[in-house]
Design brief:
The protein folds into two domains: about 110 residues, Carboxypeptidase-like, regulatory domain (Immunoglobulin-like, Sandwich); about 110 residues, no CATH class. By secondary structure, the chain is of the alpha+beta class. The protein has six helices and twelve strands. The strands form four sheets. It has a four-stranded mixed β-sheet with strand order 4-1-9-7, with no helix packed on it. A four-stranded mixed β-sheet has the order 3-2-6-12, with no helix packed on it. It has a two-stranded antiparallel sheet with strand order 5-8.
């Protein structure tokens, strides 16, 4: 009996050790846009098709990946009847490295309104990127001392130029004319939302041909399912 208990404890302890080394991802599901209301009861589905977690009242969820490590790629989907994922391009991503901050944030909207919600999300990301670039420019100017005033006029001019093109960014990212271009644009959107602006632009520049206005269509969503 003692030997049996010892064996059982050993098995349970081993299981605890394995769980302790499993990759863990925390996330949040919000309605429509960043800062929106939490969405409870959304099922987070892993690539194997099993429900890995269900969001709580705060829209939060935690996933455990016993066979994966930080940096490994995962692909999720979300199930909530009548809803689809706005930023579905971020359903496929790399697990955060140890020490990296920030949870995965997924946005759900009512079916049929994804196009507008995605446009708003991309526009907000563009505004944040522009403001961050402007503030960084101001810091650099302060280091220049006597050249600060001369550089400020040019910095403000470039900021106004950026403001004039802000609304075209979502439109450019959301259109495609071929399967290969579509995948590149999806990757560009993912990089853009992650703040990797240079990489996003580089991804767009790799396309074989620029889609015409007549041929362009919005990128179709993926990863959202109805139960």
């Amino acid at each position: 009996m003692v030997r049996l208990l010892a064996t059982l404890i050993g098995v349970l302890t081993l299981g605890a050790v394995l769980d302790a080394h499993a990759a863990v991802e925390k996330g949040l599901v919000l309605a429509d846009e960043l800062g929106g209301q939490p969405v409870a009861g959304a099922e987070i589905v892993t690539a194997e098709g099993s429900v890995g977690a269900v969001t709580d009242a705060a829209g939060a969820f935690t996933l455990s990946f016993p066979d994966k490590q930080a940096g490994d790629n995962v692909k999720l989907s979300v199930r909530k009847e009548g809803y689809e994922v706005v930023n579905d391009v971020q359903l496929e991503h790399s697990l955060a490295q140890e020490g990296e901050e920030g949870a995965l944030v997924l946005l759900l909207c009512k079916e049929g309104s994804r196009k507008e919600m995605l446009r708003r999300m991309l526009l907000l990301s563009a505004v944040k990127a522009m403001e961050a670039s402007y503030l960084q420019g101001l810091k650099e100017l302060k280091k220049q001392g006597e050249n600060e005033l001369a550089g400020l006029s040019d910095l403000q001019r470039r900021r106004h130029q950026a403001e004039d093109t802000l609304t075209t960014i979502p439109k450019e990212l959301m259109k495609t004319s071929s399967d290969s271009t579509s995948e590149r644009r999806r990757q560009a959107i993912r990089l853009f939302l992650e703040g990797e602006l240079g990489k996003a632009i580089g991804m767009l520049e790799k396309r074989e041909a620029v889609p015409s206005r007549e041929d362009a269509t919005e990128i179709a969503p993926e990863g959202a399912k109805s139960s």
